[in-house]
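INTERNAL TRANSFER SHEET
From: sequence group
To: structure group
Subject: N-acetyltransferase

Please process the attached sequence and return the structure record in the designated field. Keep the field labels unchanged so the import script can parse them.
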Amino acid sequence: MTSYRISRASASDADRVTALVQASAAYQGEYASILEDYRVTEDYLATHPAFVAHAQRDVVGFYSLIEYPAELDLLFVADAAQGTGIGAWLVEHMLGQAADLGMTEIRVVSHPPAAGFYERMGARRVGAVPPSPPKITWERPELVFDVKHPPRD
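Return from structure group:
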């Protein structure tokens, strides 16, 4: 049985996270332009709440938040790890981090094929973001997660 853990991303994770993002089958074909030459840098990881899911030494998932305004910036699960629950686990972790940061809701501008996943995780669709050529020539679903805060004693 494979054991997984989530930890804060560090500068040393930048290349592995970039490789995870670049390898995503969800961004091939018509969606390839959005990730062309995209890199997750050491500086990005140092300045954003960013977390990686590990299976032994492999990075199998990743997410990052923008703190203001609150937004899920990136969330990726390795193609081979999809369907294992890692994506749901990352969303659950992200919502906990958002609560710790005092966020009340998190905006998600979704990759179109991923919108259903976010809705299954509890996000509600609030609109759509129009294309922004030349890289993004398609409309993207806009969703919001409401962040629940534990009751105070």
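Handover comment: The helical segments are 14-22, 42-47, 86-100, 115-120. The first helix runs from residue 14 to 22.
Transfer complete.
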